[in-house]
Each structure stands twice: as C-alpha cells, then as structure tokens.
Amino acid sequence: MSVRLSQAQPYALGLFRAVIGFLFACHGAAALFGILGGAMGGGTVPAGTWPGWYAAVIQLVGGTLVALGLGTRAAALIASGSMAYAYFRVHQPESLFPLQNGGEASAVFCWAFLLIVFTGPGAVALDRLFSTRADAVRLSGSRAEQARPVSV
To answer: Residue 82, class by beta-carbon neighbours within 10 Å (0-12 exposed, 13-18 middle, 19+ buried)?
Structure first.
C-alpha cells in the first residue's frame, strides 16, 4: 500500500496544486470582475486601491500560474506571502484565532502555497514541460562539446 501511495504522490501533488490555484484565482476574479458573487458579497474592488486590488491581482495571476504549474514555486511564494500579509494585517488584529477573526481562508491558502513552494508542482505541470525542453537543450549542448575535438 505504501509503495502505491508513494508512486501516486507526484500526481496527488499536481492535483492539489491545480485545485488550490484554481480556488485562489476564483477569489481574484470575483474581486476584480464581480463574477462568482463578487468581492465580499457583490461588486468589485476599485482599481488601484491598497491592499484589496493588489491582493486580487496576485490572487488571479498567481492562482492561474499555480493552477497551470507555470512558474509554480515563485508564484506560490508570492501568493503565500500575500495571504500571510492578509492574515496578520486584516484578520489577526480582530482576534488571535482564525475561527474568531474570519481568517481561515487566508491561513489555509498561506500554508497550502508554502507547501507547494517546498514540494514543487507535482507530475502534471507546465513547468515540467519547459524544464524537460531546457534539460534536453542543455544535454545536447554538453554532448556536442564532448564530441568536439579539442585543439591544442
């Protein structure tokens, strides 16, 4: 059983990354475009307002990048930091515990994205597609250098 779970781990991480990224992007889309119920129950966040509009942009762009697995670790690090900021600046002053201050989503997203920073994108990600091509180019370049005669 343990072996089968270990073999499935990269795929489970990929699914986790995609779901967390999609949910995060939905928050940003709601705040920026008023879809899916809008920002805080309706409407949009006014463009350029601090910190709401910037947080919504990070949510939409960062969530989309994480969901696709493109620039995953960097996008997840920025997303995690934005949620830590949201928790400590917006929610934590109200009360210590997330259940009391309404910061559950911020806390969970912060830790989920931090986990993605350390575990990577998983098996199915655009990062893997591009890293495979870069590795192939790098390998072919190093083989060409090895095959080239050295002139003295």
So the answer is: buried
Q: What span, in angstroms and rounded, lies between the C-alpha atoms of 149 and 46? A: 64
pTM, 2 dp:
0.81
Contact call for residues 112 and 15 (beta carbons, < 8 A): no
Cα–Cα distance between 38 and 44 in angstroms, integer?
A: 6
pLDDT digits (tens, 9 = 90+) for 92-141: 899 989 999 999 999 999 999 999 999 999 988 998 887 756 555 555 55
Q: Where are the alpha helices (DSSP H) in 40-93?
A: 52-68, 72-86
Cα–Cα distances in angstroms (integers) from residue 32 to residues 39, 52, 64, 71, in the given order: 8, 9, 14, 22
- Residue 133, burial from CB neighbour count under 10 angstroms (0-12, 13-18, 19+): exposed
